[in-house]
Amino acid sequence: LDTTPPVFSDISVSSDNTFRPGPITGEEEEAVLAKLGDTITVSFTATDLNSSGVETVSASLGGQTMTPAIDNQVLDYTFTYVVADSVISDGEALLQFSATDSAGNLTYWSSTKWVTIDSTPPIAQTNAQPSLARVGNALVYQATLLKSTQTKWSS
User: Fold this and answer.
1) pTM greater than 0.90
2) 24 and 61 in contact (C-beta within 8 Å)?
C-alpha cells in the first residue's frame, strides 16, 4: 500500500531578465526578477519513493498556470510563464507546484522567495526648459525617477 507522496528536489528558477536572471536553487539566494514580457522558467525533479510512479505534475506563479515544457522527462519537469500586463501583482510572486503519484498521494511545494515581478516601468519627471544652444555647447538635463529602476527598463 503506497501512502507516501512524491518528493521534490533539484529545484531551479530562472528568468530571461538581463538584470537578475538566476538561476537560483535555494531561498537563501536573491530572487530572480521579471518585468513585462520576461519568461520565468522553473525546473524540478519529482520522485515517487514507493515506485507507484508520478502521475501528474503542475506549476503556477502568482496563481497563474505555468506552461509545461513539451520534453518533460519521467522525473524532471520544466514549466514556463511569460509575465503579462497586470496579471500578477508587482512584488514577490507565489511559486507553487504539485505532484500526484499513481496511488493518489498528493504533495505541494510553495514559496514567495524565488521570483519578484516588476511590471510597472519607472516614471521620470523633468522641468526642462527650452533654451538656445550652439554646436559644441554643453547641455545639462536633470530628471527625477519616481520608482526604483532595479529591473533595467528600456524603451
Assistant:
1) no
2) no
Instruction: Give the C-alpha separation, 108 to 96, whole Å.
Output: 7
Nearest to 79 by CA among 109, 108, 40, 36: 40
CA distance 115 to 16: 12
Cα(30)–Cα(11) distance, rounded to whole angstroms?
15
* Residue type (1 letter), 155: S
* C-alpha–C-alpha distance, residues 8 and 108, integer Å: 9
Adjacent-strand bridge partners of 54: 101
Residue 55 near residue 72 (C-beta atoms within 8 A): no
Kindly report, residue by residue over 112-146, the tens digit of the pLDDT. 889 999 888 777 777 767 677 788 887 776 666 66
CA dihedral sign of residues 66, 12, 97, 34: negative
Task: Tell me the per-residue pLDDT of 48-88, one tens digit each, with 9 for 90 and over.
Answer: 887 778 999 999 999 999 999 876 667 899 999 999 877 88
* Residue in the block written with cell 521620470: 124
